Amino acid sequence: MVAAAGQTPVIDARGITKIHGGPLTTAPTLAGVDLAVASREIVALRGPSGSGKSTLLNILGCLDRPTSGTYQLGGRDVSALTREEQAWVRLHYLGFIFQSFHLIGHSTVLENVALPLHYAGIRAKDALSTAEERLVRVGLRERLHYFPSQLSGGQRQRVAIARSLVLRPKVLLADEPTGALDTKTGAEIMSLLVELHDQEGTAIVLVTHDPHVATFAHRQVFLRDGQIVDGEATLGARH
After folding, report:
1. Is residue 201 a contact partner of residue 39, using CB atoms and an 8 Å limit?
2. Which of 27, 73, 72, 66 is closest to 50 using CA atoms?
3. Low-confidence residues of the chain, pLDDT below 50?
4. CA-CA distances (angstroms) from residue 192 to 51, 127, 137, 138?
5. How far apart are the C-alpha atoms of 69 and 33, rounded to whole Å?
6. What is the 3-state secondary structure (H, E, C) of 49-80?
7. pLDDT digits (tens, 9 = 90+) for 147-175
8. 205, 31 in Cβ contact below 8 A?
9. What single DSSP character describes residue 118?
């Protein structure tokens, strides 16, 4: 599946197969998936449980390696990187948002968002300043020194979004980003993601079971039994 016409793919995955287990395994989790995502594109991965969505997202996030196939991220082949190389790519090229937020409970909101900057070698003063700017942009100016337990679910996801974008990644990967939120809060979070995407141009790939959430994407890609079975442009995206 190719990216939108005339656009250079930031993600170019071809023939991606993933087989879990030993040699007797006969049903691959992924079976020859081709997926290209253009820079500035939002793509929603959909399909029933067990269709391979999360496995594909893990491979795109350099959290797992394909059994076979090639994966280029920003023009670099990342299919067979070492663990150390994968960690570097995740830090500098990718941002992650999870359904369960994955915030550090004993750290403040500001410290949570600054953490990737510390890992990247940014000095503490600059890291905290950049983290504060990101949190202001997601509407949390008054919550910088709160702890995650003091925030609502929507506020915690805003913190996660700020953290995911603090190093200006090429690609943002979101696994059920509204799955733990009520409908109204989920719509607010998706509107925020689209707004930040429009401002910064980061490509977004998100996994969702929610048809309404998927309409925020430019394109929906449907998986079943480890294969892409359909893809379509989303009418009425950009709510």
Report:
1. yes
2. 27
3. 1-2, 4-5, 235-237, 239
4. 28, 23, 10, 7
5. 8
6. CCCCHHHHHHHHCCCCCCCEEEEEECCEECCC
7. 999 999 999 999 999 999 999 999 999 99
8. no
9. H
